[in-house]
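In this section we walk through a basic example: taking a raw amino acid sequence and producing a predicted 3D structure, encoded as discrete structure tokens. The instruction is simple. Fold the sequence below.
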Amino acid sequence: MSSQNPDASEVPSLNGPVQIFTAITLIALPTVMFGGFSLLRLLIADRLNQFQTAYFRAGHAHAGVLLVLILAVLDLLPRTNLSDTGQWAVGALLLAGALAQSGGMFLHMAIGQPGRWSAGNTVTVAGAVLLAAAMLTAAVGVITT
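The resulting token sequence is shown next.
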């Protein structure tokens, strides 16, 4: 009977930029979990107004989803033809983009006003641009492999 486990030589090794960015992402996930706990406590204590609640929820949700997205992209990178430099670039863009996009929502929650643009909105947009650059670079790596 053959084994269901793939041969070790067929599984890409986890090293270099992928290993580092995977570790950073896994370490960051508990901070998102703590953010959910914090949001719950603030809602129970009625400490946030409607505007703050909306942006806290948006920042928290984006952080969690984007960290999972990072893990998915990092899983693909070793199977592309991207060089170590390309993998470093994708990892850095993903991490910076996720931090900026979700962090910008928290910044807007703290300094912004309803219906008005703030530095938080600018940071969020910059994060989206960084994430798009990372995704397109990773896509090129996948397509050209």
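Looking at the output, two observations stand out. The chain has one domain: 16-143. The helical segments are 16-44, 50-76, 84-111, 119-143. In the next section we compare this with other chains.
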